[in-house]
Write a structure and sequence with these properties.
Length: 334
């Protein structure tokens, strides 16, 4: 059986082909699965999608009509999939429930340190042989307060690094993580965390309850010199509200690896096109903002785990097994 994999990066392709070798053939495409590309999947029983796929009603209907029965998404997040429609159409949907939390946690700290120590600005200057230090002053993190929204596996890994810096630890989540408590974390209400943290990092999933959890009110509660980092999902932040605060001269730095309107932009080369997203265009002009293209997970360790789990999801489906990765189970045979 040949599997069709959408949205495969050039670095991923040899890893995917090697992982599926001896099990199934795999055809890798660099285009993302959406309404325009879904017809390509006609005749493929198993399709693998990436995090930036659009799996709405029309796409799912196209896939089902073409004979697809399993969608194996290569990501933890699944807010891009209409699961109710998939279930109605009898499509099985599986994801990667977990992978290396260190990849994202370490990258979140990379963003935090980059904006705190003005690394991008310094690097751009030295390329022009400008070695002045004006405007490059950062802050020690030891003794300052970090606020972690979401203390699951990634949030815990982020907290362990913060503990290593010698920071005061504040956390918010629907449930306390004993490992974070053992590190000295104090769980508080969101408003208190916003008001007291010098550095805030987001590690919650994107759900209706967390959509724009960082909105205008939350942003106004934060310290004027706070650092804000988002390596989770773009929809957690109201970007227009963030731009308004940045225009007012607030925040030491903002590090974003995700953006709420990133679909159709991230993972693609848009360098020769006119950017029609005015909010993003404005966001990247601020000297205290660093935006990267959803690469926090992109390590050989994490991507390898994601691919291995995707292979297992396919093998489980073929064998009639169900694991914790299945979001929509196989429809019962009539």
């Amino acid at each position: 059986m040949e599997i069709l994999a959408f949205g495969v990066q050039s670095d991923e392709k040899p890893l995917i082909e090697k992982a599926f070798a001896g099990h199934h053939e795999v055809r890798c495409l660099d285009v993302f699965l959406n309404e325009d590309t879904a017809p390509i999947a006609a005749g493929y029983e198993i399709v693998s999608s990436s995090v930036n796929a659009t799996l709405n009603n029309r796409v799912l209907q196209t896939l089902a009509a073409g004979g697809t029965q399993l969608i194996a998404q290569r990501s933890t997040g699944f807010n891009n999939i209409d699961l109710q429609v998939a279930e109605r159409l009898g499509l099985t949907v599986a994801r990667v429930s977990s992978y290396s939390p260190y990849s994202v946690a370490e990258f979140a700290w990379t963003l935090a340190m980059a904006v705190n120590r003005r690394i991008v600005r310094a690097s751009n200057r030295t390329r022009d042989f400008d070695f002045r230090l004006d405007g490059l002053m950062g802050r020690d993190l030891r003794g300052r307060t970090v606020g972690v929204l979401g203390t699951g596996k990634i949030g815990e890994a982020f907290t362990r690094i913060a503990h290593g810096f010698g920071m005061n630890l504040l956390g918010w989540d629907v449930a306390r993580n004993p490992a974070c408590v053992e590190l000295g974390m104090t769980y508080v209400e969101k408003d208190k965390l916003f008001a007291e943290a010098d550095l805030i990092s987001l590690h919650v999933p994107l759900l209706p309850a967390t959509q724009h959890i960082i909105g205008a009110d939350a942003l106004r509660m934060m310290k004027d010199d706070a650092i804000l980092v988002n390596s989770s999902r773009g929809g957690l932040i109201d970007t227009e509200a963030l731009v308004a605060e940045l225009r007012a001269g607030r925040f030491t730095g903002v590090g974003l690896d995700v953006y709420e309107a990133e679909a159709g932009l991230f993972f693609l080369d848009k360098s020769l096109e006119v950017v029609e997203d005015d909010t993003l265009a404005r966001l990247v002009t601020f000297p205290n903002v660093v935006v990267t293209s959803h690469q926090a997970y992109y390590t050989v360790d994490a991507v390898g785990q994601i691919i291995d789990t995707t292979v297992r999801n396919v093998l489980d489906y073929r064998a009639g097994r169900r694991s914790e990765n299945v979001l929509v189970p196989a429809a019962p045979k009539s």
